[in-house]
Every structure is written in C-alpha cells, then in structure tokens.
Amino acid sequence: MTHSYNGSGLVTETLSYVNASGGSPVPPVYRIDRKFKYIYTGEQLTKEERYNFDIQTNQLVLQSEKIYTWENGKKKKSVEYVYENGRRREYANVIYRYENGFEIQDHHNGREDYPSFSHGYRYDANGRVAEERTKNFSPILDGSNQRTGLREVKNYVANKEYNSLGRYI
User: Fold this and answer.
1) In whole angstroms, how far apart are CA 18 and each of 59, 64, 95?
2) pLDDT value, residue 25
3) d(CA 22, CA 26)
4) Counting C-beta atoms within 10 Å of the first and last residue's C-beta, which end of the chain has fewer, N or C?
C-alpha cells in the first residue's frame, strides 16, 4: 500500500496492489488493485472515492463514494453511493453521535430509519483507535409486521494496543 499526503499531512490517496504475475515471474509483477481518494475542506474530510481495477478495460473504475457533512467540528452524517452499470444509487448512510468519549457510527442500509449495526470508537491522544465497539441489531416486529423497536443481537468490544513505533499490536 502506498499513501499520498497534502501539505497539512492529511492522506489524499491510498493505493493497494495485487500480484498480477500469477506467481511465476521473479520478481513478481504488481498492479494497482484499488484506489481511495480523499477530498477535504480545510481539515475536514468531505468526500471519499473508491476505485476498483477492471481487468477487462485495464482501468480503475469508480465503485463508490461517501459524502460527509459536519456540524460544530464533528462528523454528523455520511451518505454512501455505489455505481452499478453506470448508474449511481444510495447504498447506505451513517449517522454520527458522540457519547461518553466515543464517536458512534450508526449504519443504516439504504433508506431504513433504524441502524443495522453500530460502531463506536474511542481514540487515544495520538488520534489512534484505543477501543472499538460493534453492535448488530435486528428489528422487533409486531403482529402487523411493523417495527416496534430494535433488538441487539451481537456486541463486540476490542481494545487496541500500540508498540513504541505506533504500530497496532
């Protein structure tokens, strides 16, 4: 993976590579597999684009994009769009909220008004994830198949540790 940065030190592009040589040539031949492009307003991420490599056309093709909105210096919402057969459609949206030192991301599929899962992140003083929480939900339905609430079906907690070089261990 390679990363490009702007003058403020923010990542503007990430490229991932795959061995395209079929395992026979030495040294191996690599090609770009995916590209991520990050667009900022000031230091706030406003758009993220993901490109996948299309073997038939030998080009990177836009697969999805996320548009972020901010309020009072914090992320408020992101909407993800995917491209299929040249058409753009809304895929998911994330509502951000902040509680007890966590940035909580409630993920909604399509236009559903309830989250299907939620991620919570607590960051250390260096901006790295110190604790991650994930919850999966399923709707509680009444006799008329109308949603009356949410049931938590899984809950994961992971504590993150870093070595002296700042790498996750």
Assistant:
1) 14, 20, 33
2) 63
3) 11
4) C
Please, which residues bridge with residue 136 across strands? 117, 154
Residue 142 CA to residue 31 CA, distance in Å, equals 52
Quickly count helices (H) and strands (E) in the chain: 0, 11
CA distance linking residue 19 with residue 26, whole number of Å: 11
Name the nearest CA neighbour of 31 among 9, 6, 60: 60
* DSSP code of residue 136: E
Residue whose entry in the numeric block shows the structure tokens 């991420």: 45
| pLDDT tens profile 86-102 | 899 999 999 999 999 99
Would you call 116 helix, strand, or coil by DSSP?
A: coil
Token output for 158:
């992971």
